[in-house]
């Protein structure tokens, strides 16, 4: 068992929370884990990514080799395309379709979607709307995480306990919101498969 | 043994806490910042009274750590690679004084310049100063080496340099931690002249340092951090330093690496091991995640020996960090390739946050300068450096901490009047104060903007040494009271602020303008905490 995941988004969109949830779930299943994060100046509204790797065998490199990622998990559609060179031929793109437009030359959403549709395997979702339905748009990152769960090779119960552990200090309401968001994302993905 | 999920930085911090450290000294700098932050948040560190406060800059941090070592206790000083330039005077001389309590210097290098001005390799500093260098290949080694470093430092009575890079610093994995040990008792150096570098004493100490080199090499051979992993294919021997070893191994997860490898984690590298590899292999490939230091040494000036492959002959790129594919290519291993990035994908550079006070300050400055024309704003290192980019395009230099004020002095001396300096509050107390004193003594016609957002913003909002002190410092350095102007950088005061800046630009001496408004990130954080505290009371 081995998964290499690129998490992608814009600084402040919560990809490190997704990474923390998957990482903790992987640890719960006693897997080896490496997670390379981006800190510092690039967090200020710029493109950010994290390399997340877990495996039943020890992992050598903190960085995923190019062309080797199993999943690109993106909370922003243009960002899902930025890391295509990292994705393997049978890999999956799982991305929110909600653009984060903070640059002058942001492409038309339709053009972005056309590029995503060219890829062999993808799940797209309106994470903002789904999160709103669950109770708060802030849980959009958890909806995207939920859509990825069928591909993670981890038990849903491990993800659930990870969410409880990570958001425990924020209270029961936040935990339930996040779990609901994850479930919504998961159901959406299973329907698209 | 306890297994914790830690960043490389955090593994170092935890090891230092477990290893009996009495104090950590640092100035924030990516990718080293999290070491101090971890100690500051650690319950064990608090319980054991481990001193953990930010210093004004890397030099003051280095010197304070040296003082703690003088008093017999274990001290750690942490910085990013360019911080070691600031600390260099103290660092190089600390090798001559030697250590009493264990003294560990952590330098976090940033190959590929993810958040830096250059990609200098701190191993050069270690070699230059004749001290041992440890270079972990993973987070576990970062933990183990930190604990070993204190012991080595005390045994050899010398500071030890721990060199890490961004990928290790900011990558998280499980780390096995050992038993925590006690701190040292206060104990003066046996020789009370050990730290007195008068020439007569320094000459003696320097010879002692040179004399230690053989023992340091022996320590590198004994520690187990340098070793040869045998292989049957002698057509190529590989030297893999630090993190490069991981990228090498990543290429052999499904197959066996047949070439002999010298894994390097401690310097000076034992010559016997190098000789053994060099003697038994036809060619050598050197993998270093940084400058080609070992490669250059092996080639020598004349490069008349066996073929040495690496960054200098084009086998590896000359600059930038390594990764599994780059190392694989050097070995002729074919990799699967992903799809190219579609053309419609645009770059998304970092930018100032919405509501950032710097934005309002620079909008006013830009307008105030419109009569004089572009190209006269010298700036510094911080979030505000982003104002060089569109849409503000407000600044024309960013070189090193504090260079804004002093470059403005030189430019004004050359006739560029008015010249403007724009520097952050934390950068000002880091290295701007002495430059401002020069400007006052020189009566330079410059206008200095001290952008006071009351924090060290770019690294995530650490306490700024300047907090609440800037006006007093500026006055104390001799800037006339009437030319110290405090502004509130908000859109609604734009006209007023622009007018004030214009007035000071016209003044033929040193003016200091202080646009003061809290960083939007720390403000939001504070408000969230306040709301949380209030909710708890109810």
Structural features, described:
The complex is a heterodimer of chains A (193) and B (538). Chain A has 193 residues and is an alpha/beta fold. Chain A has one domain: Pyruvate-ferredoxin Oxidoreductase, domain 3 (3-Layer(aba) Sandwich). Chain A is built from seven helices and six strands, in the order βαβββαβαβαααα. Chain A has helices spanning 15-28, 77-82, 109-117, 127-134, 140-148, 156-167, 172-192; strands spanning 2-10, 32-36, 47-55, 69-74, 87-96, 122-125. Chain A has a six-stranded mixed β-sheet. In chain A, helix 3 links the parallel strand 5 and strand 6 (122-125). Chain A is globular. The mean pLDDT of chain A is 94. Chain B has 538 residues and is an alpha/beta fold. Chain B folds into three domains: 2-222, 3-Layer(aba) Sandwich (Rossmann fold), CATH 3.40.50; 227-330, Rossmann fold (3-Layer(aba) Sandwich); 357-522, Thiamin diphosphate (ThDP)-binding fold, Pyr/PP domains (Rossmann fold). Helix content of chain B is 40%, strand content 17%. Chain B has 20 helices and 19 strands. In chain B, the strands form four sheets. Chain B has a seven-stranded mixed β-sheet, sandwiched between helices. In chain B, strands 9-11-10-13-14 form a five-stranded mixed β-sheet, with helices on both faces. Chain B has a five-stranded parallel β-sheet with strand order 15-16-17-19-18, with helices on both faces. In chain B, helix 19 (494-506) links the parallel strand 18 (484-487) and strand 19. Chain B is globular, with a radius of gyration of 26 Å. At the A-B interface, helix 1, strand 2, helix 2, strand 5 and helix 3 of A face strand 8, helix 11 and helix 14 of B. Strand 2 of chain A pairs antiparallel with strand 8 of chain B.
